[in-house]
Write a structure and sequence with these properties.
12 helices, D-Maltodextrin-Binding Protein, domain 2, elongated, 362 residues, alpha/beta, 12 strands, 19% strand
Length: 362
């Protein structure tokens, strides 16, 4: 028989019975419980770290190998528009940089919202790029409800460029200056009309700003996209169009439309003979458009960085850069964080303009 001292027996776990008769220990030392809990926490932390390291390695590998297949480049405006023009140039350049096809996909309608919704629902793997513009920043305030959120559903990659607009008229209109256009419009209230690529678009806001500052009444005629609006002004279906310079400049040079003024704050180097609206009697007038690449919000940051590098490299290739500059584009190429801050500021600024006009689209 083995004997134990009283002190040793006191250290043994005691068992008591509950109402069912099942016995359990009551005096397990706290240090044992804490050691067991610490071990479990350490195991959980280890597993989480292993998963994070694996994911980081996978993302890094994906960025290093990206792209390994065709990239889809969604432009939510029609062929022939300013957005389409820069989209085609950048997509072609990126294809050369990546050694993979970059296919332009024009998804028009609803002032760019149809293409935006499609892009927002795409896989966040870097193989769907979305080219947004200032129109989408305007839509945030213009539409009561959107099927996407420009800030929450997308990760900004880089601003490609900004594009000034030109106030153009059909050659049959007997005006050769902004002052003459204003006088004719006031003499024919409600008879004149202007084209736009939809309510809330940059072309729409430029015209509405002019109407407000000049105190004239010009009827709005919306078109599905920039290509259709250009066709309309050339055909004489509309009298006036605040057209993106890149899409309208070839027709100005051909004499198929007449340019009256630029929407920039100062004269354009590439079109120095053309006055601005600001110097034509409307001090402070300035309007235009910007274009930038976005991807679905959960796209890995390394992939976002690779896409930006590809776009900036493409735009700065000497031949491509000259082509963009000749078309009036002001090349940007900022970092994702800088572009994100710019977009938020644009949403706020354009929102104030929409609020002043009282415009809302269901």
């Amino acid at each position: 028989m083995i004997y134990m001292t009283k002190s040793k027996r006191a250290r043994l776990p005691e068992r008591i019975a509950d109402a069912s008769g099942k016995k359990f220990m009551t005096n397990i030392r706290p240090s044992i419980v804490m050691q067991s809990l610490a071990a479990r926490i350490a195991l959980i932390v280890f597993v989480v770290l292993v998963v994070l390291i694996a994911q980081t390695g996978a993302h890094t590998a994906a960025a290093q190998n990206y792209p390994t297949k065709t990239v889809r480049y969604i432009v939510p405006m029609s062929a022939g528009s300013g957005a389409d023009t820069i989209g085609r140039i950048v997509a072609a350049g990126m294809a050369q940089v990546f050694g993979q096809q970059v296919i332009l996909d024009n998804r028009t309608g609803a002032a760019g919202n149809l293409g935006a919704e499609l892009a927002a629902r795409a896989p966040a793997d870097g193989y769907t790029l979305f080219q947004a513009s200032s129109t989408h920043a305007t839509n945030v305030s213009l539409y009561r409800k959107l099927p996407y959120d420009l800030v929450k559903d997308f990760a900004p990659v880089t601003q490609l460029a900004s594009s000034p607009s030109l106030l153009v008229v059909h050659p049959s209109l007997p005006v050769k200056s902004v002052a003459e256009l204003t006088r004719l419009t006031k003499a024919r209230p409600g008879e004149m009309n202007y084209a736009s690529t939809g309510a809330g678009s940059a072309t729409f806001l430029a015209a509405e700003l002019f109407k407000d500052m000049a105190g004239v009444n010009i009827t709005h005629v919306p078109y599905r996209g920039g290509g259709e609006a250009v066709t309309a002004i050339i055909a004489g279906e509309v009298s006036v169009y605040f057209a993106p310079m890149a899409s309208i400049l070839p027709y100005v040079r051909q004499g198929r439309v007449r340019a009256l003024a630029a929407t920039t704050s100062k004269r354009l180097d590439s079109f120095a003979q053309l006055p601005t609206l600001a110097e034509s009697g409307y001090a402070g007038y300035q309007a235009g458009n910007w274009y930038g690449i976005f991807v679905p919000i959960k796209t890995p940051r390394d992939v976002v960085s690779t896409i930006r590098t590809g776009a900036v490299t493409a735009m700065n290739e000497p031949t491509t850069r000259k082509r963009l500059v000749d078309l009036g584009y002001l090349i940007a190429g900022d970092q994702p964080d800088e572009f994100a801050a710019f977009v938020k500021a644009e949403i706020a600024t354009l929102g104030k303009i929409i609020q002043r006009t009282g415009l809302k689209v269901e």
